[in-house]
Amino acid sequence: MSKGVSVIAVRVAMFALALSVVSCTEARSAARSNMSASAYREGDYPEAVKEASKAIEIKPDFHLAYVNRGTAFVAMRQYDRALADYQMAIALKPDEAVTHLNYCELLVFLRRNKDAVHHAEVFVQTNPHSNLGKLALAQALEGQDAARAYQTSTAALRSLETSQADAELQYVPKDYLFAYAYALHGRIAADVGKGGEAQSSIEKAAGFRNDYATRYAQARVYYSQRNWDWARSQARAAYDLATPGEKNSPIGVESRFLIGNCALKLGDLTEARTAYEDFISANETEPEAYFNLGQVYAKKGDVSAAIKSYTSALQLKDTLIEAYVNRGSLYLRTQRYDEAVRDFSRVLVRQPDDATVLYKRAYAYCVSGHTSEGRRDLRGVLRLKPDHSEPSALLTQCGG
User: What pLDDT does 194 receive?
Assistant: First the structure.
């Protein structure tokens, strides 16, 4: 399952407005940025974008206005526009770590982990003492290299715990910073099998702020422990208590994915379908979501929708073997034999000794009149499983 994303951007945007105003132009732009932050708090994201845009018109190099507008775009699920604003803010103020953090988190949510890792590594190289930069790198690594993510988040957290947070606190209030750091570390510790440490970090995060990100992290810990019922309950409760901004944030969207996964494990197909469809409506880049939705549709007997979902998964990740197997099996069930053969053949290129798939392809060949190809596959199945009775019977039917 994919990883969660914090909503630290808007917190920082509102906090960082306590900057020194050196000109009338900057004062006017800062006032508009304040209005943008206020509109965001009230859940009026178009108004937040409008006011931030006015701030940018007044002072095009006011980086905080881009951060505010980018955060509002995230809440509106306009991710490309949010990325562009974060990039502009970074260009205007390259050493402000929190903007890099939010930029990396959004890249991770969009499944651009390699880009996120590269960006965070470059920032940490030029700002080696930035704990926020290290947290950004840990977030980027979470879905690619869990061991390194754990090492990186541990180092950042230990540094913060030993009173080396002064530089970070000019951007982020202490309770937000430590809640975020502990929650992130807790999720990553759970991923590497350190359940006790994960739970301890989540409890520490809650001691600072038992906010949405912390509650989601707790659900993630339960999920890593395969406690599907508790994970779903925690994620549901967090989502039910969330503000509109939190529900529309990347972490809010990710929680729908987690709920879908838990519901599927628990056999609740109705909730699983709703949760996956909610997730996909906001994020169309996760192949696992389409694959799991395909499983839901298949279990519910909606073959056409299942095939469509498996196809979407494969368009995003053409090495997803199980999607070919499942789609091929549905083609076989609906007598679309040529398409079934193509899917099973793709699997067998990678897994030539998969007797089950080889038998399915043999059956598709035989019932569609390609008996010589069917007999060849059936002999292959019998070489792999000499005592298998079904291939012998089918081989007789195919004239072998």
Answer: 94
> How far apart are alpha carbons 362 and 357 in whole angstroms?
9
Across 336-360, b (16+ Cβ under 10 Å) vs e yields bbebbbbbbebbbeeeeebbbbbbb
Nearest residue to 149 (alpha-carbon basis) of 158, 141, 157, 159: 141
pTM comes to 0.88
**Tell me, what's the pLDDT at 6?**
46
**C-beta separation of 63 from 96 below 8 A:** yes
d(CA 392, CA 109): 50
CB 357 within 8 A of CB 344: yes
Domains along the chain with CATH numbers: 319-400 (1.25.40.10)
- Residue carrying structure tokens 């997803």: 320
> Rounded CA gap, 379 and 385, in Å?
10
Report CA torsion sign: 89, 90, 96, 99. Answer: positive
Cα separation, 259 vs 270, in Å, equals 12
The Cα-based distances of 9 to 102, 113, 244 in angstroms read 6, 19, 15
